[in-house]
UniProtKB/TrEMBL annotation, chains A, B:
<dbReference type="Pfam" id="PF13794">
    <property type="entry name" value="MiaE_2"/>
</dbReference>
<protein>
    <submittedName>
        <fullName>tRNA 2-methylthio-N6-isopentenyl adenosine(37) hydroxylase MiaE-like protein</fullName>
    </submittedName>
</protein>
<dbReference type="InterPro" id="IPR012347">
    <property type="entry name" value="Ferritin-like"/>
</dbReference>
<dbReference type="InterPro" id="IPR059125">
    <property type="entry name" value="Ferritin_actino"/>
</dbReference>
<dbReference type="InterPro" id="IPR009078">
    <property type="entry name" value="Ferritin-like_SF"/>
</dbReference>
<feature type="domain" description="Ferritin-like">
    <location>
        <begin position="35"/>
        <end position="219"/>
    </location>
</feature>
Amino acid sequence: METPKTPSPDAAAEERSREVTGVAAADWAESSADPRYRAAVVDLLGALAYGELAAFERLADDAKLAPALADKAALARMAAAEFQHFERLTGRLREIDEDPAAAMEPFASALEEFHRLTAPSDWLEGLVKAYVGDAIAADFYREVAVRLDSDTRALVLAVLDDTGHASFAVEKVRAAIEADPRVGGRLALWARRLMGEALSQAQRVVADRDALSTMLVGGVADGFDLAEIGRMFSRITEAHTKRMAALGLSA
Amino acid sequence: METPKTPSPDAAAEERSREVTGVAAADWAESSADPRYRAAVVDLLGALAYGELAAFERLADDAKLAPALADKAALARMAAAEFQHFERLTGRLREIDEDPAAAMEPFASALEEFHRLTAPSDWLEGLVKAYVGDAIAADFYREVAVRLDSDTRALVLAVLDDTGHASFAVEKVRAAIEADPRVGGRLALWARRLMGEALSQAQRVVADRDALSTMLVGGVADGFDLAEIGRMFSRITEAHTKRMAALGLSA
C-alpha cells in the first residue's frame, strides 16, 4: 500500500517545482492572497468532499451485498469514515467562507459517472472497489499534499491518516481467490476497469478545471503542465498495479 | 418531541415496578448475575444494534432521493450518527463477551420486514420516516432506560443523547405542506402507516422474546405482563400522534 520510496526522476522534478513555488512553506492566509491558488484549493476541497460523499453512498449501498452481519458492519464502518472526511472537508470550506455545495457541484457529474459505470455486481467486486478506491485516494492525497499551503496540507494529511479501513478487504479477497482461483481472473479484470474509469473521469476533470490542474502539477507559478499531470497519473497507476499484484490480482 | 411530563397512572405504575425490582439501583456486575436479566439485556442491545445498522442503511439509501446536495449531506449525517450508535452498542456486547452478530440475528427479520414495508417513495416520505423513526427510537430508549442497571442505562442514555439529528426534517416537511396542503394528507397517511408497521413488528418481537419483553415491563422479578407492554406502546403512540399534529400531520 506504500508508494515507492526510491527517488525517481519524477520525484526530483517534483522537488524542484516545490522549491520554485514555495507554497508549501506558506500558510493559508498568505497563499490564499493569490486568487488562482485560492480557486484551486476550493476546487480541490470541493472535489475531495464530493468524492467522500459519493463514496459514502456507494459503500453504504454495497453493504447490502455483504454475506454476513460482520461484513456488512465493516463496509458500513468504511462508509461512516468517508462521511467524517466529508464533514471535515466541507467544514473547512465553510471556514474559508465558501459554499460547500457550490464548490462540490463542478465535480458531481464526473464522480457520479464513475460510480454509475463501476457498480459492483457482487460482494467481492464491492470489496475490491472499496480497497482500490481507498488506496488510490490515499495516493492522490499524498501526491497533492506537497503542493499545498501548511493549513490545507494539515487537513488533507489528517483525512489521509484516517483511511486504511479497507485492509480487511485484502484478507477476504485473498481467501476467495484461494478457494476458487478463477475468481482472481475476474477480479483482476474488474480492478483494471476501476482504474481505467477512474483515470478517464480524472482526465475529464483535469481538462475542465484549469486552476486545480495547474496546482496539482507544481503550483500556479509554473503554469499548467499536461505532461506532469500524466506523470502523476502514472505514479498512481503504478502503485495500483503493485497493490493488485500483492493481492493476487496480477493483470 | 418531549414525552408528557404530567404524572399519569401509568407513570405511577412504572414508579412502583422500579421500586420492586431495584435493578436500576444495581450495576451490571451485580444485576447480570441473574441469567434472565443478562439474556434480556443481550437481546435489548442486539435489537438496538441491528435497528441502528438497518437505519443506517435505509437513511443512506434515502439520501439518494435528496433534491439538493445539502439535503443529501443532512441525511448522510443522520446515517453516520446511527452507525456510531451501532458501534457503541456492539462494542458493549463485545465487552460483556457476547457475539454482536449472534445477539442481533433474532431481530434481523422483523427490522428488515419493517423497512421493506416502509420504503419511502419520495424525498418527503423519507424525511418523515427519518423524523418519526428518530423520535420513536428516542421515546423507546427513554422508556427502557428506567428498567436497566446503571451501566447499561448510561450507555442507552448516551446513545439517546446523540439523537435529534432529524429536526431539520420538520422544517422541510412544514414548508412542503405550506406550499401544497394536499401533501399534508398524503404524509399523514404515511406517518400512520409507519407507526402501524413499527407496532406490528414490535409485537412480533415481544411475542418471540420472553426475557426481553419481561424486562421491558418492569424487571424480571415481576414476570411478563402483556397489559403493561400494551401501555408502553400506547404511550409511544400517543407521543407520536402529538408530534405529527405539531408537524401539521393530524390524522
